[in-house]
Write a structure and sequence with these properties.
It is a single chain. With 294 residues, the protein is α+β, with helices and mostly antiparallel strands. The chain has a domain at 192-294: Immunoglobulin-like (Sandwich). Helices cover 24% and strands 40% of the residues. It contains 5 helices and 17 strands. The longest helix has 29 residues, at 68-96. It is globular. It starts with a helix and ends with a strand. The relative contact order is 0.12.
Length: 294
């Protein structure tokens, strides 16, 4: 084969490959759902009294490619992201002692002297998530109490454990199931993060380099870059927040809007119960990172 013919064939192959990469593809949720990237954070804080606080959070970005070339890139990066996330999941679940629902988009977790908690958002249906937790918690020695409240769009199940009372709360919202699993330890929380009786304490912070606005109950709080970013590290850090970032609420369900400078606003509904304390951080691209602290 002469050099001219080889050049023609090579050029033709490149043109064909380039054309194939630009072929539009029909979105396929089943195969286009792998993560493009995974934002992961883990921290440990040791207090002067010897108590240790462990904090985890992870946020998964999703691919929705329009062209074949984008799909190939998404699949390759997604494979690496899944390996990373599974390693993180195993470490978190083993050290926290709580199961983690599969196919999560967002997860946060806390292990403090007062509580073990995990918040998970997954596209799996509510029935599937409820079945997973019931089976996984039974294997871990949790005993489900009578009186579970289960409906098509929400479920509340309480448990008895050797370490303290357990609670599973599921809410179906925007084609996602939001799962909050917690085990409140026997040690009482300090006054710095304990809410008023029959009330809820919500602590606000911003982990990002840009300022952010959080709107809740028709009230908007402006957070400077990195304001209160360590609130989830320990009760001492939470106590350092200014009063403007400590919100007292009655129990209930709230719509929260987060707007990071330079990003689109994100809205979520947030359910809280009496005598709970939550931290809410502004994460990458303005994503809300809720975490049960007490």
């Amino acid at each position: 084969m002469n050099r001219r013919m080889l050049s023609i064939l090579l050029a033709g192959s490149l043109v064909a490959a380039t054309a194939a990469m630009a072929i539009p593809v029909t979105p396929d949720p089943a195969r286009d759902s792998p993560a493009n990237t995974v934002h992961i954070s883990w921290s440990r804080t040791t207090q002067s009294n010897g108590y240790v606080d462990d904090t985890w959070w992870a946020l998964r970005d999703r691919c929705a490619p329009d062209y074949l070339g984008e799909r190939l890139v998404c699949n390759a990066i997604g494979l690496l992201a899944r390996v990373t996330s599974r390693t993180f999941e195993t470490k978190m679940s083993d050290e926290l002692g709580l199961p983690l629902a599969d196919r999560w988009d967002l997860m946060t977790a806390k292990n403090s002297p007062f509580i073990r908690s995990a918040h998970v958002e997954t596209p799996l249906g509510l029935d599937a998530v409820l079945g997973f937790y019931r089976a996984a918690l039974e294997k871990r020695g949790w005993t489900e109490n009578d009186g579970a409240a289960v409906a098509p769009d929400r479920a509340v199940v309480t448990f008895t454990t050797s370490d303290g009372p357990g609670l599973l709360r599921l809410v179906r919202q925007d084609n996602m199931t939001i799962a909050d699993l917690s085990l409140r330890k026997l040690l009482a929380a300090t006054t710095s993060i304990r809410p008023a009786p029959d009330r809820v304490m919500l602590l606000l912070g911003n982990k990002m380099d840009e300022a952010a606005d959080i709107t809740i109950n028709e009230r908007t709080i402006r957070l400077a870059a990195h304001a209160g970013e360590k609130l989830i590290d320990s009760d001492a850090d939470a106590d350092k927040l200014p009063d403007s970032q400590k919100i007292d609420l009655p129990p209930g369900r709230y719509k929260i809007t987060l707007k990071l400078d330079g990003s689109a606003a994100q809205e979520r509904e947030f359910e809280v119960a009496a005598n709970e304390t939550w931290g809410l951080l502004v994460g990458p691209e303005g994503a809300p990172l809720p975490m049960r602290l007490y």
